[in-house]
Structures are given as structure tokens and as C-alpha cells.
Amino acid sequence: MRSIFLYFFIAITTIQLNAQAAYWQQEVSYNMQIDMNVESNQFKGIQKLVYKNNSPDTLNKVFYHLYYNAFQPGSMMDVRSRTISDPDSRVGARIAALKDDEIGYQKINKLSQDGKKLTFKVVGTILEVELAKPILPGASTSFTMDFEAQVPLQVRRTGRDNKEGIRYSMTQWYPKMVEYDKQGWHANPYIGREFHGVWGNFDVAITIDSKYILGATGYLENANEIGYGYADENIEIEHGEKLTWKFTAPMVHDFAWVADPDFTHKTTELDNGTTLHFLYQADSNTTNWDSLPHFAVKIFEEMNQTFGEYPYKQYTVAQGGDGGMEYPMLTLITGHRSKGSLVGVTAHEAIHSWYQLLLATNESLYPWMDEGFTSYAEDVILPSILPKYKPFSGSYRSYFNLVESGKQEVLTTHADHYKTNRAYGVASYSMGLIFCHQLSYIVGYDVFLKGMKRYFNEWKYKHPTPNDFIRIIEKESGLELDWYLNQWIASTNTIDYGIKWMKEEDGLTTLTLEKIGELPMPLDIYVKYKNGKEEWINIPLRIMSGNKLKESNMGEYRVSEAWPWTYNLYELKLSSKIDNIESIVIDPSERMADINRENNTYPLKNDKIFKTK
Ligand SMILES: [Zn+2]
């Protein structure tokens, strides 16, 4: 009895240990047949889904997102959009004003699991499903759903008839399986931003009025029945009243499409064989689209080289939506733009192919990891593509202004729960960008970029967390960086270092540095001497257990003794008289988000200099 008990105890403990150590993610395969009615803006769908439970848990329930239900007066999204203190002008009270034929909905007519009818409940934008039989760890099950939907008038991202006259921006348009991961279910009510989905394969057939031209996630499988610039040029195609477009998309976590009868379709190719598609209404407002293929090729080439190779064989830039939004192998952007704005938004959305669509972080929990990393990569690659582009400084300004306003919130806030749209925006885009740029300051630029590539190679097609990312940079740099992740995302602590005073004794200068802000950082001190000599001195933090190596733009470099962060003052010795020093700057690269840079430089006011001869 006792030995059997002991055996089971050991067996269970071993399984648990393995389950905790190993990464796992759920898998899904969608097969959807959609019949679209362009008169009523409604469609019918049959969805067959195979779901594999790779978790160590037995599942008794599953959930689906029904995003369209958000576009109804009184929905959580409607109320949130009208009551937040700084409403998004693209939403405001527009949902409250939707008429019956303008609202969105997804109605589930029938749902079964492995042939057995299921009971379910619709709660706003979430479908809750009691399973007929539990899904055991490692087991697969199939769901068959019969549903119908009405496409809402375009309000935020998804919908019909956007302000530029694109008929269908079909995003968040189908009942989508909710992700279950180490943190459990993410049946997040949709109130307007951020997504998280299950990795898998899509097989989607869309039957629609044959005058419509489509773009979508995935590969068009029946191009020679379609034409419209997708087929070989010599093929003659006669269309009936309706046409079925068949797409497949391997290893993605969402599927979106766009359709309009007036689309012009152009393509171009990268050297590695990836085809870029462009769909837009060619008129006097979209003349800048003529040169977009040229710029898009450069964007992909730069990204492939610096941040890891885009693995899919197609990407589509389509006019649609209400600004710019990323989907796998597809972006919808508004098209009436200046050249700089058109190239900028295309770059931003295309770069999301790396940060979110391949490195599929949970956007609701860590919006700074997709928006911030995307904004960072954008600022790294765009200056070589758009010579007038000014990188980085705008994000620092937004952050400094938010700090000054007192409205800053911690980056660990769930995207839906920020008190203001502004705090969400600055945290996600600006502070996320600064997180990266500042980390490149801590570990060195080349080391950081190598880390970014390693992050891509080790975590693509998965759901990395902040800790997974910082571990990569720790391994690449050999430094301990958990303090930085924690301080930057889980506190509103700020950085302020300054030059306190200088002393001269026996012909040598002692520079006293002061830590004024709560957030500790390693320092780069740049010293220029009157004889033309330059020196970079790195002061690491003791909690880093190491120091960064010389960066490629630095001249003479030395590492000073590590700074224990609880000390407010630090004395740095310079082997020169004060009079021989021309200037001193703390962090001349300005990558450190020091909220007061006025105290970062010498020459100082005279009353702070004490000379002893
Ligand atoms: Zn973005």
C-alpha cells in the first residue's frame, strides 16, 4: 500500500514538474465556408474546427469571441467609448447611433462537438460552450458551427463602407476560438482594442458577388478561376453572378479579408520570392500608392536583414479600415495619405508581422510588447528609407509629457483597463519603444540587435511573455536585467541622474554624480578634453553582475566600479585638471529616459565647482 502510494506520488510530481518546465500552446484548424450577400451585408457561415488541447489540463468548457456583437447600442464597447474621459474620436458615440441594419451581430444557429449537439450561452462578445465530453490533455476534438452574421457599419477597424468608401473591411468577423494558455482562458470582452488568438491553420472559402476583388490572410488557392491580377495573364475567365475565393493560411492566429468592386490590384516581388500585393481604389486621393511597392520592398528587406526573415510567401497592403491595423499576411490602412504618412503606416503595420503576428504576445496583457517593439523597429529602419524621418525623440517627448501630467500608469495594466486612452497610448507605443532603445543603451546596441534576432528565431510562432524576452537579452548580454524589466513595466519610477559637483585635488578631478530619480540605471559618461582627447566611461550597476562592452561608435572606453543603487552619490576620478576638461555629458546617446537632462552636462554653474590646489 505504502509503496504504491509512494509510486503514485513520484509519478504525479514528475508530471507536474515537466508540465511546469515545458512550454505548450493550443492548436486549431479552421475550415470555413462563407456565403456573402452584398445587398443585405449579411453572410452565412459553416465553420468546422479541430481543436487540440496541448495543455496539461482537462477542459470542460470552451469559449469563442463574437466581436461583431460589440457594435450594438449599449454594448460594453459602446458604454466604454462614451464614458472614458478622453474618447477615441473614431468611436465616441457612433455605436450608440447605429440603426438595425447598421449594427453588427454574430448569431450561432447550431453547434456540435464530434457530432453531439452542444448547449451554449452568448454573453456580449463571448460565446460560452459547455462541452459534451471533456477534452483531455493531448486530445483533439472537432466543433461544427452553423452561424450567420451582419457586417456592422465601419466604426473601429472592422465593418462595411468605411469613410473612404471601401465596402468590406472584414476583421474580427468570424466566431474565433478563445486562447487558453499558462494563464488560463482569455475570454476577454471586446471593448475596442487588442487581440490574442490560438495558433493554427485556416482554410476559408468566400462566395461573393463576382464583381468584388478580395485580399486576405493566406494564399489564394484558385487564382486561375479568379483573375483580377491573381491569375496568369493569358487565362480568359468568365465569371457567373457569384464567385468563390479559396484561401489557405498555415500557422497564423487570425484570418482577415477585404473586398471592394473598385480595387486596383498590383504586385511586386522580393528577392527571396515573397510576393507583395497592393489593393486600393486608384483615384486622385491615392496617387502616392504608385510608389508604395518600391518602399514596401525596402521595408521588408530591412526587416528581414535586421530583425529576422519574414517566413510567409505573401503580404497584402489593402486600403480599408480606419487608420492602420495589422493582421497575418495582411494590413488594412486608410489610403488618402501623403507619401511620408503612407510609407510610415505601411512600415508600422508590416513590422507587426514580426511583433505580434509571429511573436504573438498577448496584446491585452502586454500591449507595449507589440506596439512598442514595432515602433522601435520602425525607428531603426525608417531613417534609411525616408531620409527626413526623425526617429526616437518624439516617443521620449510623449513619455516626459505624460510623466509631467501625473497621468502615467504602469505598463502591467491590462490594455482595456487604462484610465485614459492617452496613458494606454504612451505606455504601449512610446514607453514600449523606450524599453527597447534604453535596453540597447544598457547592454550595447549590437548586442541588443543580436538579441532581437535571437528572440525572433526562438519565439516565432509562439506566445512569448515579458520574462521570455528579457531572458533572451540576459543570455545574449551575459547581464542580469530582471531589475530593469520590473522597474520599467511594474512601476512608475523615473530616471534622473545629474552632475552634483566637481573637485580638483593634486591636479586630478573628482566628478560627483547624483542619483535623483528612483529608477537606477548604468551610466555612460562622455568626457571631452581641451587637447582633443575623448573618453567614454561606463558605470555599471552592481545588480547587473557585469557591464556592457564598448559600443562601435565609442572611442577610448573604460569601465568604472559598479554603482550600488542604494547610494545616492558616486565619485568618478578623472586624471586631469578641471581646466583641461572641455565638456562632460551623461549619456550623450540620449537613449536613457532621464526626465531632467539639464543637470547632465558640464560646464556647470560656477558655484558648484570647488577647486583645492
Ligand atoms: Zn501598431
Task: Please provide a written account of the structure.
The protein is built from 11 helices and 32 strands. The chain is α+β, with helices and mostly antiparallel strands and 613 residues long. It has an 8-stranded mixed β-sheet, with no helix packed on it. Strands 19-20-21-23-22 form a 5-stranded mixed β-sheet, with helices on one face. Among the domains are: 380-490, no CATH class; 497-611, Immunoglobulin-like, CATH 2.60.40. It binds zinc ion. Zinc ion is lined by residues 348, 352, 371, 374.
Short recap of the structure:
This protein is 25% helix and 30% strand. The protein has 613 residues and is an alpha+beta fold.
Which terms summarize this structure?
eight-stranded mixed sheet; alpha+beta; 11 helices; 613 residues; 30% strand; binds zinc ion; 32 strands; Immunoglobulin-like; five-stranded mixed sheet; 25% helix
Small molecules in complex = zinc ion
Helix content: 10-25%
Q: Report the mean per-residue pLDDT as an integer.
A: 95
In this structure, how is the largest beta sheet organized?
8 strands, mixed
Question: How many angstroms does the end-to-end distance come to?
Answer: 86 Å
Tally of separate helices? 11
Indicate the radius of gyration in whole angstroms: 28 Å
Q: Which CATH architecture of the domain at 497-611?
A: Sandwich
What is the structural class?
alpha+beta
The CATH topology of the domain at 497-611 corresponds to: Immunoglobulin-like
Low-confidence stretches: none
CATH class of the domain at 497-611: Mainly Beta
**3D shape:** elongated
Strand adjacency order, main sheet: 5-4-8-2-1-14-17-16
